[in-house]
Amino acid sequence: MAGNSFGQAFRITTAGESHGPGNVVIIDGCPSGIALSVDDLLFDLNRRRPGQSHLVTQRQESDVPEILAGVFEGRTTGTSLAILIRNEDQRSRDYNEIKDKYRPGHADYTYDAKYGFRDYRGGGRASARETVARVAAGVVAKKLIAEAFGGKVVGYVKQVGPIVARVDDPERVTLADVEAFPDGTPNLVRCPDRERAQEMIELIESVRKDQDSIGGVSEIVASNVPVGLGEPVFDKLKADLAKALFSLPAVLGVEYGVGFACATQRGSEHNDEFVAEESGTGVRRVVTRSNRHGGMLGGISSGMPIVLRAAIKPTSSLSREQRTVTNTGEGAIIRTKGRHDPCLLPRFVPIGEAMVAIVLADHYLRFRALRPA
Amino acid sequence: MAGNSFGQAFRITTAGESHGPGNVVIIDGCPSGIALSVDDLLFDLNRRRPGQSHLVTQRQESDVPEILAGVFEGRTTGTSLAILIRNEDQRSRDYNEIKDKYRPGHADYTYDAKYGFRDYRGGGRASARETVARVAAGVVAKKLIAEAFGGKVVGYVKQVGPIVARVDDPERVTLADVEAFPDGTPNLVRCPDRERAQEMIELIESVRKDQDSIGGVSEIVASNVPVGLGEPVFDKLKADLAKALFSLPAVLGVEYGVGFACATQRGSEHNDEFVAEESGTGVRRVVTRSNRHGGMLGGISSGMPIVLRAAIKPTSSLSREQRTVTNTGEGAIIRTKGRHDPCLLPRFVPIGEAMVAIVLADHYLRFRALRPA
Amino acid sequence: MAGNSFGQAFRITTAGESHGPGNVVIIDGCPSGIALSVDDLLFDLNRRRPGQSHLVTQRQESDVPEILAGVFEGRTTGTSLAILIRNEDQRSRDYNEIKDKYRPGHADYTYDAKYGFRDYRGGGRASARETVARVAAGVVAKKLIAEAFGGKVVGYVKQVGPIVARVDDPERVTLADVEAFPDGTPNLVRCPDRERAQEMIELIESVRKDQDSIGGVSEIVASNVPVGLGEPVFDKLKADLAKALFSLPAVLGVEYGVGFACATQRGSEHNDEFVAEESGTGVRRVVTRSNRHGGMLGGISSGMPIVLRAAIKPTSSLSREQRTVTNTGEGAIIRTKGRHDPCLLPRFVPIGEAMVAIVLADHYLRFRALRPA
Amino acid sequence: MAGNSFGQAFRITTAGESHGPGNVVIIDGCPSGIALSVDDLLFDLNRRRPGQSHLVTQRQESDVPEILAGVFEGRTTGTSLAILIRNEDQRSRDYNEIKDKYRPGHADYTYDAKYGFRDYRGGGRASARETVARVAAGVVAKKLIAEAFGGKVVGYVKQVGPIVARVDDPERVTLADVEAFPDGTPNLVRCPDRERAQEMIELIESVRKDQDSIGGVSEIVASNVPVGLGEPVFDKLKADLAKALFSLPAVLGVEYGVGFACATQRGSEHNDEFVAEESGTGVRRVVTRSNRHGGMLGGISSGMPIVLRAAIKPTSSLSREQRTVTNTGEGAIIRTKGRHDPCLLPRFVPIGEAMVAIVLADHYLRFRALRPA
């Protein structure tokens, strides 16, 4: 009820602040028998890690997790899993500025009003630092859906400021495309359209020089999802995915398939035609000729790729001066001297993927529970 | 887990199909002492009712609710409330066409795949008929938040096809503006911009003549919401509102404040400046000079109006021919002869409002539980 | 959170008062494809029905249920089921006596304190009338576990006052034994030990003549339960069963296997020895030679019969005078003139069985969700 | 759904095994502003600690907790709290015996059947070691209820084997009485009846010499509980308390007030008479002259002390030989060489108290949410 848990059958619960001892996640409902190691966790934790490139915050965290419970002889036991990621770079810096002043765009004011006081060190629980625990849980979810149905979740940066990547077939984008260019150069901005990626990097660098920040859009695609995930009415798959994405800091919009563009479409343009497809093994399966619906019909997965986009606002922390008030209502000027990302998009990708994977893992287990008697 | 409940402290559970005996909602967690009558329920039920104008489906339902439990001597008892709305217009028509064919854009195929069979009469549980139970529950939620903090939820149609209403100050739109024009003429399309409203009506009429349908966008505003509703991390207010909206049929996108437009903004353009405002009684309160954030910061209500928009796809049922397959994978032609809305927007308004009110009622009770010791 | 729902995967939500329009249950999470009719429901509803014999309350209710949703062509659809049982015998009698006076042993005082007022007609929501909805849901649960694993739940009266039935092998007691004696005479008290049954009937009749009531113990046995139901730690099967039983009115104690007698046992006397048993098909399965543990080890079903007992207090309503206070704190004398059971045990049997079946159905679905990947 | 969380508004989630790195609890829903230190936690952790006396297991654990999150400047922040207690005494001993053999009375067999394999080191997640996390959470719950309503939970040993303590007024037993005798001697067995306590100690010592174990009963009393806690129907306070107690290892019975003795009582003997009492400040409050009901009526706290008893089976691990089978179904002899308690009762007291306090904290927050509008 206090909002630190997510999911029903595959359920994660997190705790941790930006500058406390660390962040911990308990995963309840992971079936037994899944191979899991610290190295498995490190892959996505490194994709999310601060300091990974000059485009992101320079906070230094190794983010090496410790598995506290739930794994025995390299496999999950079926009982609750706990993973701890300690905070390391907790500079004993002067927090007095943000202690009393409300940073525009941040949760400082709403936390103070809600709780009567707050852990002001770097945003406390409201810091995006908490997403480290989600990414660790996302690795477990990814392993579960991969084993269970070959499920795959790939996210990438679709837009930074006015620069929009061209991605003709979202389903074909691979993790490799997102992480590196064909020549092996790291894809620092995680945009699979190389030309636009370069423009995005230049824009982010320029924005940072201006002591400013910039927004963008991330697209996430889940493929190999079986038909039938999602529950009618309130727990539609699109509803739970949206909740998952909007539970992330800075997300101001989510859309599926054609998304907001559906507003100007007619039914005859929008509806996707059903066709029967001969699969390799001669079994007929029903698919749609196009995927304007984004992979869910009636809130239930249709077997087509799930395609969604999340709009991410520009980072709220700015090195330049902003006007605000103090907690006693006095006018004030604030400059956020700390380390922050000029654009949240590159690090958002593994975080968004994690949330999508967690929802799919959850709905897969729910599907197992509720399938026909 | 099977998705027919929503909310945690103020929790609704529904059952009912399009052509079964009726739809029922149980509301658990409504505090005692709230005045509630059938007439209270009828107001919004009538706004949602089929057959209310020539713009909407001509299915005839009186939608008079029966309060089965939870009200004594005109007031809620604090124990669970149950409301039943019977179905009346269940034409004993030939359903054979949709029995075997998958209607494009509908849940016929996904339900068949998930459950092994389905109630094919008018969509069964996947029909928008189920929203009648939500609207009844929404009335109770609206009464609760009005009594508790003067909370008000007003929705309207912002866009139909390419026609976008001009609404300068969303917070000032009243229920009266939405339901009727200043001269008392009913506002059939529920768009407060009269000129655009007329254009929208003409567009809807023309689309219907084409045996087609059209999408749109609804904007919903919640005002007088106190600071502090919403929980950090997973149950952010924006996350629960988004889940609520996306749990409705046909919603393909949701955004807050500037929404997707944030992608092209810089932090210095996007952030809303905090200022201290002298209230009437001399108390200082913190507000923001602008409301690009849409009323929530860190996922917690900021005291500014909550402003959101939902993108609604064009009605899937079309009177014109569409190509599809049968449940045995044979190609087929389908024409939906039944009664359906050429545009979902006018009837969406009370439904969207209901979901927003339910989320606010829920988070208000959660706020009471978790406020500082 | 307001306590009108029970279960997680197989989840029931109820509403209804003693003298309102009726009682309704929504069952969420029942898999599709289970045959269900009004007649199926009537069997246990009749076992619970008031007026079924001279031993129980003479309130007249036909308790014929209406299935409002979730069944199509005689089978469950997989979406939410709703069942309504209307109240009929709502005598327009003078409630003024209990309106202002707190009946000893009842919830009148605690409801008034909690809610500020109460539906005083026959106890309102606190009346055992609410169990009619549980029994309807229990029928669905019994059908589910019977289909899924041949699961069977049989309850009976073990003790009334000082009279304790002799039941040598709880697992062998059948529904037939409980409902009638070998000669076909109805077993009004639902005790399978015929001699003690006769004594119990005489005791109940004598207690009623004294305008008094009497307590007792019911024993419930679940058999054919597969190994592995129940979750470690908080949702142990014994924990959820106990919650289910204690959620019923008048239950003051619950115990499993040897129960409270374990306090005087040594480990060497108490532990049940494991042995391997050749099943009919030559498969070896592990069983225990004795069943002092009551069918659960570590909170998880062991495959042995689950045996539990619930202690039921004497009916609180008495026709004789009792001393109490009014809601303004004045001393008063109260006599409950209404119709009530002199002993709750005979009608408790189907109610207790229903709750056990609901827990098993729930844990069976949870088991399906969480079984090894 | 996998059972590692408990509570709704005040909700704890735990992870950890007997011989893994440690045990962790996340507490979600603790209001902000409660003072909390490691020392606060240590008090009850020490009461539960192995090795505290010669009567209990000699496993050596310092059980010093680390607060990982949720406390800032010595007070709870209102966001999720995490506490880690590392395991220290994880002897690298030969587990081969229990690896393949099913210990009678333990969860070895049911875990193997459920999960396909198990962490066999000392019982893994099924070990009573997991209760260390509950006791830490219980300290937070005790602080919350003490601040909120002066709530107090005191448990003690009522019975060991045939020795039953005489406790005339359960409400008057203090923590001091339970922890030490009037002369300051530590009360190793936690029984407030000194004479019986001495007999219990002798019995436990003798049982241990016999390489055997012994059961018992613990009584727990909660006082100063306000009227109105607990929800009607399924979440009755007695139901949630029973679930809490039965979720503990080795509990085979729970009863309230007169408990199972109600079976032989008549209503006229059992019902507690209401009387109005002048409080110190002249306010009249309603109480009952006796407390056979055990502090709850209709499942809702009546304002009288809550009195419950739990029956605890004799420790399953025995140093003497027991017959059993291996995981391949072969007959075998087992002797548990490890360290274990000959009687669970002395260490049960703080564990049982913790669970009662957690339920009261949860229902108190729920009460705040749902009180009259």
Secondary-structure map:
Four copies of one chain form a homotetramer.
Chain A: E1 5-6, E2 11-16, E3 22-28, H1 38-48, E4 65-69, E5 71-72, E6 75-76, E7 81-86, H2 96-100, H3 108-115, H4 131-149, E8 152-160, E9 163-164, H5 175-179, H6 194-209, E10 216-223, H7 237-246, E11 251-256, H8 267-270, E12 274-278, E13 284-288, E14 296-297, E15 300-301, E16 306-312, E17 322-325, E18 331-334, H9 345-370
Antiparallel strand pairs in A: 1-2, 2-3, 3-7, 4-7, 5-6, 8-9, 8-10, 10-16, 11-16, 12-13, 14-15, 17-18
The order of strands across the largest sheet of chain A is 1-2-3-7-4
Query: Spans of chain A with pLDDT under 50 lasting ≥5 residues?
Result: none
Largest sheet of chain A: 5 strands, antiparallel
Quaternary class: homotetramer
Highest CATH level, the class of chain A: Alpha Beta
Total strands of chain A: 18
What's the mean pLDDT score of chain A? 95
| Cα gyration radius of chain A (Å) | 21 Å
Per CATH, what is the topology of chain A? Chorismate synthase, AroC fold
CATH architecture of chain A: 4-Layer Sandwich
Give the helix level of chain A as a range of percent.
25-40%
- What structural class should be given to the helix and strand makeup of chain A? alpha+beta
Q: Specify the CATH homologous superfamily of chain A.
A: Chorismate synthase AroC
Helix and strand succession of chain A?
A: EEEHEEEEHHHEEHHEHEHEEEEEEEH
- The tally of structural domains of chain A comes to 1
Distance between the termini of chain A: 32 Å
Shape of chain A: globular
